[in-house]
Design goal:
This protein is of the alpha/beta class and about 425 residues long. The chain contains 14 helices and 20 strands.
Length: about 425
């Protein structure tokens, strides 16, 4: 497979959240600096590394599928599993004979140095490998600023697999954003397990954002998921800076106060609504997106309909829908009133229909408006990119639009987004 004197090829893949994506991008930089050659997951590689997800049983299944698929694609390659599934159930992954190495969340940071020590495939001179790399394939960089969670919501496995709560030092975050800017990125997405809890040397998330906007020179700054109790007047005031993307992802999970209490969430629907109202009063054209779980143990038909009604009232720009997935070791796993798969499937379909209606209603109000789009990629002659408020825009262009921030007029609904014309 590997030519003489050619650096070993490494394929990096990731499932699940933006934090997993941020970690895999950071690992890519480490490996490339060490002399490895990066290739896409679909190509043949000497080493295939998957950052696994275990937030649902479906994520577990997808992780196992991708690991076996990588082996079938390249039987001679080495297969490595890292991340949350590897942390929760390493024995399950070790039983997959194709997988050679399993590293949990506490050990995966050492993967680059571990490969260098144990890899029979010697990398080239550090920094000498020439590959497309992460920077040329992406226009948005995902940057990890925090890890760990102590909320222990009844349904969530994350606090059990990301046990170390820590925030990346401010100076390091700013240096990393500057590195992404120097590499050509137009947008940086700050992510973590619970980024609203960011705290380092007396600086919270708002303080970190102020420092980044003042010092790092980034064109666009976007945040991953927040909690409604983290929304304050001082915080949303930061969006007066046009570089802050007008997009808030606020996890809801349920629109029923009774279900929220059983879930051990730290807010009720009235507090959630107040957070959304504050955001919309302060940030023009803002998109508020969310997550909803259907079929939580004990959820009655009336409680489910409460959630449907609440979502209609809030008018979300996008709703990510998840049927409840029992995670061993969580409080919800032992709760009475487990909902049947048939009921969960029916409620999931109803919520997905509402989600489709919601995103179309949000996008439709911007038809005819002129907005800025960061163009990402093209397929079969059609380019796609994102507005600051997370609308997917499509357009035709004979020129290369990759990684360009351009003014676009939104013309009509198209597929899962909007068709635009570059102004």
């Amino acid at each position: 497979m590997k030519k003489v004197n050619e650096s070993p090829a490494v394929a990096l893949d990731s499932l699940g959240c933006k934090l997993n994506q941020a970690e895999i991008e950071d690992l890519a930089r480490q490996l490339e600096a060490a002399g490895y050659r990066l290739v896409s997951p679909g190509e043949k590689a000497d080493i295939y590394i998957l950052n696994t997800c275990t937030v649902t049983h479906i994520a577990d299944r997808k992780s196992r599928h991708l690991l076996r698929l990588a082996h079938r694609r390249n039987p001679a390659g080495r297969i490595v599993a890292i991340g949350c599934y590897a942390h929760r159930a390493p024995g399950e992954l070790n039983r997959i004979e194709e997988v050679e190495l399993v590293l949990d969340n506490d050990r995966k940071a050492d993967l680059a140095s571990l490969l260098k020590k144990t890899d029979a495939l010697s990398p080239a001179v550090p920094g000498a490998a020439k590959s497309p790399g992460i920077d040329s394939r992406r226009t948005r960089a995902f940057l990890k600023i925090q890890d760990g969670c102590r909320n222990y919501c009844a349904f969530c496995i994350v606090p059990y697999v990301r046990t170390r709560e820590e925030s990346v030092p401010v100076e390091r975050v700013i240096a990393q954003v500057k590195e992404r800017v120097a590499a050509g990125y137009r947008e940086v997405v700050l992510t973590g397990t619970e980024i609203g809890t960011y705290s380092c040397d007396g600086i919270n998330l708002a303080g970190l954002l102020e420092r980044i906007l003042k010092e790092a020179g980034i064109k666009r700054l976007r945040l991953s998921s927040l909690q409604p109790m983290e929304i304050t007047e001082r915080f949303v005031r930061l969006w007066q800076d046009p570089r802050m993307c007008p997009h808030f992802h606020l996890s809801l999970q349920s629109g029923s106060d009774a279900v929220l209490k059983r879930m051990k969430r730290r807010y009720n629907t009235a507090e959630y609504r107040r957070a959304v109202d504050l955001i919309r009063e302060s940030v023009p054209d803002v998109a508020v997106t969310t997550d909803v779980i259907v079929g939580f143990p004990g959820e009655t038909e009336a409680e489910f309909l409460e959630t449907m009604d609440f979502c209609r009232q809030i008018r979300f720009a996008r709703i990510h829908v998840f049927p409840f997935s029992l995670r061993p070791g969580t409080a919800a796993a032992d709760m009475p009133g487990q909902i049947s798969d048939a009921v969960k499937k029916e409620r999931n379909q109803q919520m997905l229909a509402l989600a489709k209606e919601s995103v179309q209603d949000f996008q439709r109000q911007f038809i005819g408006k002129i907005m800025e789009v960061l163009w990402e990629q093209q397929a079969r002659g059609i380019w796609s990119g994102l507005t600051g408020n997370y609308i997917r825009v499509f357009a035709r262009s004979r020129g290369d639009l990759t990684n360009r921030l351009l003014t676009v007029k939104l013309m009509k609904m198209h597929r899962d987004g909007v068709w635009g014309e570059v102004v």
